Amino acid sequence: MWQLIPAEEVVPGDIAHVRAGDFVPADLLLFDGEVSIDQSALTGESSSVLRSAG
After folding, report:
1. Its pTM surpasses 0.85
2. Are 35 and 18 in contact (CB under 8 A)?
């Protein structure tokens, strides 16, 4: 069962359900699917980057 918890309570090993528009930590590990990520705050790139599991 999914539940909402404050970001400061997320610990290594937790599994997060991510939807379009969600903010995610830089060290999130993707298990399944693909996401388009705006990582401009980290790299300065202005375009989104496609990431997939593996």
Report:
1. no
2. yes
3-class secondary structure, 50: strand
Question: DSSP letter at 13?
Answer: T
The residue extents of the domains of the chain are 1-54
Rg (CA), the chain: 12
pLDDT in tens, 4-50: 988 888 888 888 888 888 877 777 788 888 888 887 777 887 788 88
How many Cα atoms sit within 13 Å of 9 on the Cβ side? 4
